[in-house]
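Thread: nicotinamide-adenine-dinucleotide complex, take 2
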Amino acid sequence: MNILEPMSAHDHEQVIAFQNRAVGLRGILAIHDTTCGPALGGVRIWRYASEADALTDALRLSRGMTYKAAISELPCGGGKTVILLRDDLQRAEAFEAFGQLVESLRGRYFTARDVGITDDGLQAIARTTKYVAKEPDPALGDVSEHTAIGVWHGLRACLEFAGIAGKGSRVRVAMQGVGSVGLHLARILKSEGMELVVADVNAARANQAAAELGGRMLPPDEILFADCDVLAPCALGGVFSLETIPRVQAGIICGCANNQLATPEAGDELARRGIVYAPDYLVNAGGLIRGAEYFLLGRADSLPSLAGIHNRMMRVLQLAQERRVSAARIADELAEARLKQAKTYRDLHWGGSPPAASRPKT
Ligand code: NAD
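Output below.
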């Protein structure tokens, strides 16, 4: 398996492969860029088909975190960890061992929850490192809820841009995935008077969400193509491709899932079809904003910052319309421009050396 080549393709700073045979732990920690500050990014547990797939996911997700931080103008960079789900994985012990690794980086990387990580997992990681968004933590708040609030601000901009605004306009939303973020988002949308149809491969979650929110349920393989105004992908990435897009009926796509576009061309195809697409890392930045403000800036409340997602989203949609390119490409351009500016500043003032690792403010 090649490691250095895929790392250099998108200029990743560091990749750490780690294992602890006694507790069945195997994983990859990728740090994409620390120009603007320490790398922030959660840890995901997933049953990967191969080590190469796990590496690809870690590289892609960590780069997405850098872009998310850059477009949100946060003083941090991007990282991500993937742990390979195996039958011999002893979760609590493995998380403690992973926490030791994070601690050894002394603030160069902060971790948090991602797919497959429960509160117990975060507590276990927090036994061996302070560089983790441990939940529940009343001072930090619910990171997934912050993400959902951020997506809502992004969706408000999409609805305004598309001319569908205001409470009670019976907007129909199809939700793919009602997990940690999806359920919070569904509750916000319901409170705004929207009609929901939900799907989740975890049938119990779909049932619970539908019962609580009075929504309909659809089979998971039909939700992307539901007859609706808004499609909210809140599960896993890669859902929009040149094969799936022609069957999408929604006029707006806005959800929390990372890496929703299978390829950059998928973003172009959405734009060509007139579908308003909210770039994933722009609208799902709420959790990162909360984490960065809590750990690095010591802020008690991030709700005002989350509202900024609305204006960023609107700016991206307007630029995309003016320049006749996809919203996804505009978001990439804005994020890359900020990163370039930060690198120039660093090179001028610090002779190119990376910034010192940060200590948590709390
Ligand atoms: P989660 O694991 O709590 O929820 C994901 C849900 O999607 C689960 O209920 C799962 O059963 C369901 N699911 C998986 N595949 C599905 C499919 N094909 N069809 C329907 N449902 C499916 O995860 P989460 O924390 O809510 O994160 C969801 C997405 O948002 C992920 O892509 C994650 O990387 C991204 N994200 C999360 C946060 C956060 O704060 N948690 C922040 C930014 C981005």
